[in-house]
Amino acid sequence: MILLIMAAGIGSRFGKGIKQLDPVGPNGEIIMDYSIHDAIEAGFDKVVIVIRHDIEKEFREVIGERLERSCKELGVELHYAFQELKDIPVGYEVPDNRTKPWGTGQAVLAAKEYLTEPFCVINADDYYGKKAFVAIHNELEKYKGNADGFKLSLAGFILKNTLSDNGTVTRGLCQVNESNMLQSIVETKEIRKTATGAAVGDRALDPETHVSMNMWGLTPEFVQRLDDGFKEFFEKDVPSNPGKAEYLLPIFIGELLEEGSVSVHVLPTTDHWFGMTYQEDVPVVQEEFRNLLNAGVYKNDLMSDLK
């Protein structure tokens, strides 16, 4: 069972530094350490991390050596894949004014050689909680040997549990039916916390709405369709916005939902998300992990309870 971690993103709102490498734990652990711990605890035994070549040296210094040692001790495979601006479909060119990679869809494709089984994909700088990993692992177990590779899953977080006190956030707002099947997903920017819940501009949002935090249960068959869609993205989207167009998982999956070519089972979770969008979020996240350590959710020697 594979955990794919997208760690190549450039946090434009975070300011200086690489936000996915900011220490949050007592021994310099980063959020990714805790996600990998929770995934291994839930039953995942293969980790693939997508980074960029320009952050590889710092990445390996911050977490790589520690992580490689822990995975070896625990019998967990560890692989790196690289998301690069130049890795685009044959026949196309990188626009002159383009400086950053092409989004979460491209991040998954960067690791496609390793994605030979059902897998869970997450962001490196988001803390998802233990329950979400257990739920998505159990769902992925059902996919093994299933002939339909276009039955997908999504950890459905509650909007009010995913907001930042330090600024606006982007979330995939989900419409979910009574059978917990995803009906639509709308990538929505500039969501802010309010006294009564959340809002975008003058429009109030239901704080109990399910949202995507990019924690998906996906299949190798879906990856092939994602690869085909990347070519379509360069045909349709890049010409009109060459500097900023992004190939995003929620948008692509939303389009497949509209045409009826996939189904997505939403796995509700009441876990409290936290993550780092802004520099001001760092001390908040550090305090959250102190509270989890004090409550006995994690040990100071993080991986010791898995050995």
Structure description:
This protein has 307 residues and is of the alpha/beta class. Helix content is 31%, strand content 25%. It contains 7 helices and 13 strands. It has helices spanning 31-42, 56-74, 104-110, 130-143, 220-236, 249-259, 281-294; strands at residues 2-6, 46-51, 77-82, 119-123, 126-127, 151-158, 169-176, 182-194, 197-200, 203-205, 210-218, 263-268, 274-275. Strands 1, 2, 3, 4, 6, 7, 8, 9, 10, 11 and 12 form an 11-stranded mixed β-sheet that branches. Strand 2, helix 2 and strand 3 (77-82) form a beta-alpha-beta unit. Helix 1 (31-42) crosses helix 4 and helix 3 (104-110) packs across helix 5. Mean pLDDT is 91; it is low at 10-17.
